[in-house]
Structures are given as structure tokens and as C-alpha cells.
């Protein structure tokens, strides 16, 4: 009888316990019914948390009570709270979350996607109305990220974790894009291929990136151009150039157009090399998307760019050295430089939706460039020591070049994307055809105090002379397959989310008969014990497939250098090991994110190179090995309510072995700090301030036309501050006043606020004893820029 009573009591307790539990399930979407992934579903009183899946669904097992409070939150969205009254059994909820919109003009803060892979998504609104020197807003945004460095505000190029400029791949709508080959200085570059007015998404990876990105060793930048949803337009102008954008759309057609013009004549006037600068750069881009029905989509991107750089130098006066040894370099010039870079780019994509989860795309693209670099410049120079007025070097130099290059790259890409349950599969096959024709003649004469350099006493030689005539006709086959698998483990109340990306890339080049295989894998984990934490690890083998500049193997006979294409060249190789940590938190009721990544790269089959300004000159042979290791940290968030700011710190060490000598890579930047800070004036959101700070270690340098392992030294640190002030004339009420534009922004920038003389490269003086003096080439000084932006 007692046993029966105990059994009855136990059954009653179990039944009571079961009746006090319930299952909460549902779906979280935005106002357009798009699922919100990684949203937090929290019952604080019971200590239960769940994260939504890729479909926005969630499940929680909770204890019933008179009232159960459930909170839904996601960075970039307004949090929601639901109170369940005496819930029982199985409860279903469909929660709609709305973007956390701040009434700051037209800036709309959308939900921030949690990074679980090695590609971070950068916000396009961070580019708007920030102080800009070159007008290349996307690259300037990239340059301020952790692990990225640059030492010239005139250039859109950047180094990533010890890599050269050529080791960064750039894609626009799944098509790889290229830049001109002969550009040797930042003032020649002009406009980059990316039009910031047309950008919808920016994905950037500093290492451990996916197999879909091409054979580059350092970084991958993926740009997605936007498809306008309605009529939209803007126009801007400043002392450095102008731009205009127009977007049109109806139910089937979306058409975006952008025109940019740049002239940095005003900016170059702050350089120490005086003369008549006549640069002008023009660029037009169009993106047309046609969707006749739900199954078909046809996209076309076109770009025409023409850059002219004409320079007539007059004189230069540069003081440099130390307090104890001040030197002065003075030159009177005669001659001119005329450069032309004309590029065309186009892509046509035909997309077929086989079903709701599978898409097949055929993408054809073509790139063409015609480049001319010609100059004849003579200079009479004096190098004196200021204290003693002693002439250290007096002489004449003459530099001449006739460099011509034509290049064409055509590609045809077949790509398949498919979603199968928890897997996102992507595969592609690409055929490329490359044609490059080069005809170059360069020479440099030095006459120091009446003696020709080099001085043999018998013969007259140029200090540098190069002749080269090369032609490359080659084909490549590239393919890859990758899978992104999202899965979970644990219970409904304590779920760990995993994102596993793995893939294999293959490439064959018929020029050197080389086939390379590149396996890559990364794993992102959001642990159950900390839904605001993401742990990431990645590894893979990355190749730097030679393209053109890496092939040019130089040989010097009788003081004449000849560059030939090395058919035995091999791809450089880098093995990445990356460990990352992300933590999302709220402070002062504002969202923040801290990110840290440690990395180690094993570098093999390296082709050594030297850097002068933005010109990279390779040895043309695989004779090096080395490594790069470092730590990148970044704090991102709303330091001021309604605005995004960040600060980054990077530490790095690189090493390579060349001809038995160990030395740092030419891009060895041991430390770097970047700050981007935005703020509004107290009591108003019409006045906006943006501050950009950069403080980075100087790079190693060596004398030109000499072996890299000799005479190596380090340039001074790069220090720069740019500040911009913007004022919005209207508070989004222009349409109510029957005006043609939505917003008008007026701005003024103070570039190089502190007036620091940063060194970008060196001009080398050689006396008759073959002693060389490095004269610094300083970058732009302090200057003001006024700008205006109209939004229609």
C-alpha cells in the first residue's frame, strides 16, 4: 500500500512538472519578411537564451508561470518584448523587428550581420561625407581597417599583413577587376575602379578567405553594386573633383549610372616639387539589370576610364636630416612628363533560377588597358650641409622613359549556387585569355661634379639603363567548389551554432605549365554559454599566381638591363593560420563590437621585390622564403549615439631569407594604429564631424638598382590627421517645400591637420665616390578642401 502511495505521489509530481513546462517556438523576421539570423531570444528570469537560425526560427523549452517575459534583440534592430500569460503546451510566435533608425538625415542603420566566417561586412554609410584626399572612398575605408596599411594618402593601394599591393584581389559582382600596370606614383593613379556611389555591399577579408576568391595571397575585397529600387540621384563637387550618380528603376529594369571627375592639381601644389601640374581623371560606369520574370536576370556592368598626368617641373628645395646634421637639397628642373592610362571594362551576366534555391550564372567579362609613360627631365642639383655650407654633391642628372603597354584579359565564368537544407554550395569554372604587349626604354644619367657616375676613368656608362620588349599570350583555367554548412548542437535552451566553410580551388596556367591546388577551411562558433561571442579559426594554402610583373626577370650586361619573361616562374605560396575572437556588447545602451585576430603565414617560393612609391619591381625568380605573424585588434561601435566609430591596433613581424641574408619584407610594418571618429554638435544633428587618424611604423627601404639585402634602412613613421565638418541644410523636408532635392550637405575638410611632412619614398643622389644620399620625397602638406553634396 505504501509503495502504491509513493508511486502515485511520484506520478503526480512528474505530471505537475510536465504541466508547468512549455515549448516556445517561432520565427523572427524584419519588416520585409526576411529572416533575421542570430537574433537573441532571451528569458532572463529563467536564464534561457536561444539564437535564431538562418531561417529566423527558434525553439525554447521554458517553465510556465503567470507571466513569462521574452525579449528579442539584435544589433541594428529595436528590441522587442513579449509577455506570455500562463503559457501551456506549445506556443508559436512570429516576431517582426524593425531597423533601429536614427533621424540623422538619410542614414539608415540596418541590422548588422554577425561575422562567422573570415569575410567582414563593412558599412557603406561609413564612407559618406568623411574627409577624403583621393576621392576613393572604398579604398580609404579599407585602409583604416586592422591589418591594413598604407603610407601615401595619394594612393588607393594598400598592404595587408605584409603583402604587396599586387597580392590583393578585387571583385565587382563576382568578376575580378584589374588596375593599370605602369603606374609608379600615387599622383598618377587617379580614380580607382570602384565607384563608391554605386556600392551596395562591401565584403573584406584580411586572410583565411574562401575558395571562391582568386589566387592572391593576402586579401580579398568583394564589391556588390546596388540595384536601384526607385529613382535616386546625387551630385557632389569639391576643389579636388566632382561626381554624379543617377539610379532608375521599374518592375523589370534597374539602371545605375555614375560619372566621376578628379583633378588633384590643387592637392599636388602642396608638394615640395614645384612645377605646373596638369592631371585630370575621368570615369564613367553603368550597371544595368533586367529581370523579365522570376527565373531570368541579365546584368551588365560597363566602365570607361581615362587618366592624364602631365607635369612640367620647375624647382625643388628640401631640408632634411637631424638637428645636428641638417642638409639641404636644391634642384632646378627642365623637361616634362606626359602619362596616359586608358582602360575599358565590361561584364555580362546571364542568371537562371533553376528553382527557388538554385541559380546558374554565365558571366563574360573583358578588360583592356592602353598605357603610356613618357618623360624627359633634367635637373641641376646641389646637396649641401647647412651648418658648414659644404657641398656634399653637385651635379646634373637626366631621366628619360618611353614605356608603352597594352593588355587585354577576357574571361568566361560558369557559376552554380545552391542551398540544400543547411548547406550553401557554390562552384564555378572560369576560362581566361591574357594578352600583354610591352615596349619599354628607360635610362638615367648622373654627372656628379663633372664626373660621370659610375666613374670608371675609361668609359661612359649610364647609372641605369633598361630595354625590354615582351609579349605574353597565355590561357588559364580556374575552378573552385565550396560549401558553407551551418549546424547546431546542444539543447533547445543552450544551442551552439557552427558555421563551417570548406572548399578547394584549382588553377592551371599554360605559360609555365603549372597546376596549383588550394584547399581552404574555416570554422565559426557561437557558443551556447555566450551568444554574443564568436570564435573563428581558419587555415588554407594560398597561391600568388604570377601575372605579368612577377615574370620580368632582369639581366644586366655592360650596364644595360634587359627584362625577359621567365617561363620557369612558379606561384608564390602562403599557408595561413588564423584564430579570431569577436565579442558583441552594449555599453551606455549603445552597441559595440571588439574583434581580435592572431595569424601566422608561412611564405614559400617568394619572388623578392622592392617598392618605390607604388611601383613594385620584382626579381623575376622564386629565390626566397619567409613568414609573417601578427595580431590585429579593433573596437567598433557607437562612441557617440547614432554614429559609428572605430579604433584599430595592428602588430606584425615579417622575415624573409634572400641570398643567405635574413631581413624584413619591404612591407614590414611592425605596428599601426588607426582611428575613425564621428560626432554631432550638441543639441543638433545637422552639424557632423569626422576625424581620421593614422599612426604607422615606417617601412624598410634600400637604394634603387641595387640588391634588396644591401643598404636597408627604415623610413620615419607615417603620421596623419584629417578632419571634416559637414552641415545639412535640410532635415529631410525638402520635398514638403517643393524643392528638387532631399538633402544638401556643405562640408569643409582640413587635410593633414597637423602639417606633418610624411616620407613616401626617397630620391637618391650619388657622388663620384659612389656614396649615395637619400633625399626624402615628402607627401602633401596641410590644405583645406570645400565640398557640397546634393541628394535628390
Describe the overall structure.
By secondary structure, the protein is mainly beta. The protein folds into two domains: 2-96, Sandwich (Immunoglobulin-like); 120-791, Maltoporin, Chain A (Beta Barrel), CATH 2.40.170. Helices cover 4% and strands 61% of the residues. The protein has four helices and 46 strands. The strands form eight sheets. It has a 22-stranded antiparallel β-barrel. A five-stranded mixed β-sheet has the order 8-13-14-11-12, covered by helices on one side. A four-stranded antiparallel β-sheet has the order 3-2-5-6, with no helix packed on it. Strand 5 (67-73) and strand 6 (80-85) form a beta hairpin. The longest helix is centred in the first third of the chain and has 18 residues, at 2-19. Residues 1-19 and 101-111 have low confidence and may be disordered.
Topology:
Elements: H1 2-19, E1 21-29, E2 40-43, E3 48-51, E4 57-63, E5 67-73, E6 80-85, E7 89-96, E8 120-122, H2 137-143, E9 148-149, E10 159-160, E11 168-172, E12 175-176, H3 186-189, E13 199-205, E14 219-225, E15 232-238, E16 241-249, E17 253-262, H4 265-268, E18 273-290, E19 296-321, E20 326-355, E21 358-385, E22 390-420, E23 423-448, E24 451-453, E25 464-490, E26 495-509, E27 514-526, E28 533-544, E29 552-557, E30 560-565, E31 572-587, E32 590-606, E33 609-612, E34 615-618, E35 624-637, E36 645-658, E37 661-663, E38 671-680, E39 687-696, E40 700-701, E41 713-714, E42 718-728, E43 743-751, E44 759-766, E45 772-778, E46 783-791
Parallel strand pairs: 1-7, 11-14, 25-30
Antiparallel strand pairs: 1-4, 2-3, 2-5, 5-6, 8-13, 9-10, 11-12, 13-14, 15-16, 15-46, 16-17, 17-18, 18-19, 19-20, 20-21, 21-22, 22-23, 23-24, 23-25, 25-26, 26-27, 27-28, 28-31, 29-30, 31-32, 32-35, 33-34, 35-36, 36-37, 36-38, 38-39, 39-42, 40-41, 42-43, 43-46, 44-45
Amino acid at each position: 500500500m505504501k509503495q502504491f502511495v509513493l508511486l502515485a505521489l511520484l506520478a503526480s509530481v512528474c505530471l505537475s512538472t510536465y504541466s508547468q513546462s512549455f515549448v516556445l517556438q517561432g520565427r523572427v523576421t524584419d519588416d520585409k519578411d526576411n529572416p533575421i539570423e542570430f537574433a537573441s531570444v532571451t528569458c532572463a528570469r529563467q536564464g534561457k537564451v536561444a539564437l535564431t537560425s538562418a531561417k529566423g526560427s527558434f525553439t525554447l523549452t521554458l517553465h510556465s508561470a503567470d507571466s513569462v517575459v521574452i525579449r528579442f534583440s539584435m544589433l541594428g534592430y529595436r528590441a522587442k518584448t513579449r509577455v506570455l500569460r500562463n503559457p501551456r503546451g506549445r506556443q508559436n510566435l512570429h516576431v517582426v523587428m524593425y531597423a533601429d533608425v536614427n533621424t540623422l538625415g538619410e542614414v539608415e542603420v540596418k541590422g548588422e550581420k554577425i561575422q562567422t566566417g573570415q569575410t567582414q561586412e563593412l558599412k557603406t554609410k561609413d564612407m559618406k561625407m568623411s574627409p577624403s584626399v583621393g576621392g576613393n572612398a572604398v579604398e580609404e575605408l579599407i585602409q583604416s581597417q586592422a591589418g591594413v596599411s598604407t603610407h601615401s594618402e595619394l594612393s588607393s593601394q594598400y598592404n595587408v599583413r605584409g603583402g604587396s599591393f599586387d597580392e590583393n584581389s578585387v571583385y565587382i559582382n563576382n568578376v575580378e577587376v584589374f588596375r593599370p600596370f605602369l603606374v609608379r606614383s600615387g599622383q598618377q593613379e587617379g580614380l580607382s575602379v570602384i565607384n563608391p556611389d554605386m556600392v551596395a555591399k562591401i565584403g573584406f577579408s584580411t586572410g583565411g578567405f574562401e575558395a571562391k576568391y582568386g589566387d592572391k595571397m593576402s586579401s580579398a575585397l568583394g564589391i556588390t553594386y546596388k540595384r536601384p529600387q526607385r529613382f535616386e540621384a546625387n551630385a557632389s563637387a569639391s576643389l579636388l573633383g566632382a561626381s554624379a550618380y543617377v539610379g532608375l528603376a521599374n518592375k523589370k529594369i534597374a539602371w545605375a549610372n555614375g560619372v566621376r571627375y578628379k583633378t588633384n592639381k590643387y592637392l599636388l601644389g602642396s608638394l615640395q616639387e614645384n612645377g605646373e601640374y596638369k592631371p585630370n581623371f575621368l570615369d564613367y560606369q553603368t550597371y544595368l539589370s533586367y529581370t523579365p520574370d522570376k527565373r531570368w536576370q541579365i546584368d551588365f556592368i560597363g566602365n570607361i576610364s581615362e587618366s592624364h598626368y602631365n607635369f612640367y617641373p620647375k624647382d625643388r628645395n628640401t631640408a632634411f636630416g637631424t638637428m645636428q646634421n641638417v642638409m639641404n637639397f636644391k634642384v632646378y628642373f627642365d623637361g616634362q612628363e606626359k602619362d596616359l592610362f586608358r582602360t575599358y571594362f565590361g561584364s555580362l551576366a546571364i542568371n537562371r533560377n533553376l528553382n527557388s534555391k538554385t541559380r546558374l550564372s554565365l558571366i563574360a567579362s573583358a578588360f583592356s588597358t592602353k598605357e603610356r609613360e613618357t618623360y624627359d627631365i633634367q635637373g641641376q642639383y646641389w646637396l649641401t650641409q647647412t651648418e658648414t655650407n659644404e657641398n656634399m654633391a653637385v651635379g646634373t642628372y637626366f631621366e628619360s622613359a618611353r614605356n608603352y603597354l597594352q593588355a587585354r584579359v577576357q574571361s568566361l565564368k560558369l557559376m552554380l549556387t545552391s542551398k540544400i537544407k543547411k548547406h550553401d554550395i557554390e562552384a564555378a569554372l572560369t576560362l581566361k585569355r591574357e594578352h600583354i604587349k610591352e615596349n619599354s626604354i628607360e635610362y638615367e644619367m648622373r654627372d656628379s661634379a663633372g664626373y660621370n657616375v659610375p666613374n670608371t676613368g675609361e668609359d661612359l656608362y649610364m647609372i641605369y639603363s633598361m630595354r625590354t620588349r615582351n609579349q605574353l599570350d597565355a590561357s588559364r583555367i580556374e575552378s573552385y567548389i565550396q560549401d558553407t554548412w551551418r549546424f547546431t548542437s546542444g539543447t533547445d535552451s543552450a544551442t551552439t551554432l557552427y558555421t563551417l566553410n570548406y572548399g578547394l580551388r584549382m588553377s592551371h596556367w599554360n605559360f609555365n605549365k603549372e597546376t596549383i591546388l588550394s584547399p581552404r577551411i574555416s570554422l565559426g562558433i557561437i557558443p551556447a554559454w555566450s551568444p554574443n561571442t564568436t570564435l573563428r579559426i581558419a587555415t588554407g594554402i594560398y597561391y600568388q599566381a604570377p601575372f605579368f610583373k612577377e615574370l620580368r626577370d632582369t639581366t644586366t650586361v655592360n650596364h644595360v638591363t634587359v627584362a625577359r619573361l621567365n617561363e620557369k616562374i612558379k606561384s608564390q605560396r602562403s599557408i595561413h593560420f588564423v584564430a579570431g575572437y569577436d565579442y558583441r556588447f552594449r555599453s551606455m545602451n549603445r552597441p559595440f563590437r571588439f574583434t581580435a585576430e592572431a595569424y601566422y603565414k608561412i611564405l614559400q617560393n617568394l619572388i623578392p621585390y622592392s617598392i618605390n612609391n607604388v611601383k613594385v619591381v620584382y626579381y623575376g625568380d622564386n629565390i626566397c622564403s619567409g613568414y609573417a605573424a601578427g595580431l590585429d585588434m579593433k573596437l567598433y561601435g557607437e562612441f557617440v549615439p547614432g554614429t559609428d566609430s572605430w579604433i584599430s591596433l595592428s602588430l606584425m613581424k615579417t622575415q624573409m631569407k634572400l641570398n643567405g641574408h635574413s631581413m624584413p619584407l619591404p612591407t614590414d610594418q611592425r605596428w599601426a594604429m588607426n582611428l575613425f571618429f564621428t560626432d554631432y554638435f550638441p543639441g543638433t544633428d545637422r552639424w557632423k564631424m569626422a576625424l581620421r587618424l593614422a599612426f604607422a611604423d615606417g617601412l624598410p627601404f634600400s637604394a634603387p638598382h641595387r640588391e634588396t639585402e644591401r643598404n636597408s634602412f627604415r623610413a620615419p613613421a607615417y603620421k596623419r590627421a584629417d578632419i571634416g565638418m559637414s552641415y545639412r541644410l535640410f532635415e529631410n523636408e525638402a520635398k514638403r517645400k517643393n524643392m528638387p532635392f532631399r538633402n544638401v550637405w556643405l562640408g569643409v575638410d582640413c587635410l593633414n591637420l597637423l602639417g606633418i611632412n610624411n616620407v613616401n619614398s626617397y630620391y637618391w643622389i650619388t657622388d663620384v665616390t659612389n656614396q649615395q644620399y637619400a633625399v626624402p620625397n615628402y607627401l602633401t602638406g596641410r590644405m583645406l578642401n570645400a565640398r557640397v553634396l546634393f541628394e535628390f
